[in-house]
Amino acid sequence: LSPGAEMGCFTFIKVMMILFNLAIFLSGGTLLGVGIWVKVDGESFLKIFGTLSSSILQVVNVSYLLIVIGAILLVIGFLGCYGAQKESKCLLMMFFSVVLIIFIAEVAAAVVALVFTGLAETLLTGLVTPLLKEKYGVNDTFTQIWDVTMTEVHCCGLNNYTDFNNSYFFDKYHGYPKQCCGTQEPCNSTVAAEMAVQPHQCGCLVQGCFKQILEEIRTNTGVAGGVAAGIAALEIAAMAVSMYLYCQLDEK
Length: 252
What we know:
Blueprint (H helix, E strand, L loop, with lengths): L2 H38 L1 H7 L13 H25 L2 H27 L1 H19 L4 H14 L14 H6 L15 H9 L11 H11 L1 H31 L1
């Protein structure tokens, strides 16, 4: 290409880099704001978005997840947008490094989730089960999130009803959440154990939320794989563009 054509190509890619990362920056700010909103006023959030409760996001603390993702997107968007606008090699390299680290982490997480499902379940159990024992029935927002999740997904606890053994809720009410027993009352260990292994009059089998969500993901493998592939392609493209701009700055 002639010097003029190369300069035009560089300028075009630079503008696209700025606009793309500006969109990421704004998206990160939005997620961060929503995360703070959920943290401060979770009940209002659930009333508005209650129909989305079957999402896998409900298994963990939604507010912290949104805040972390929003903060990461803000950093990425700033580095990419400002780095391209100022033609800063340092910021562009930082952008490339951050996206690369996230890409590697996503690949590792996907391998663990798909190949080592048992390990993923063990890790989640170690993180989520103590929260169920300590916060369910104590923290209103946490309790409501799990109530909606267990109702919509037709599940009980992360693994099964035993996640509530020796918990605040069990000690106070001497039983399990009503979702663990379907329509059977009272929800004691006998009924919960029977509902976990065979369906009753309601025709429902109450298993752990992890198993139910995993089954839902498996039934939608094509969609999940397509979304993951799209995200990976965007990350690879972002790294390639940032490295192109970085290399072009050496020639200017």
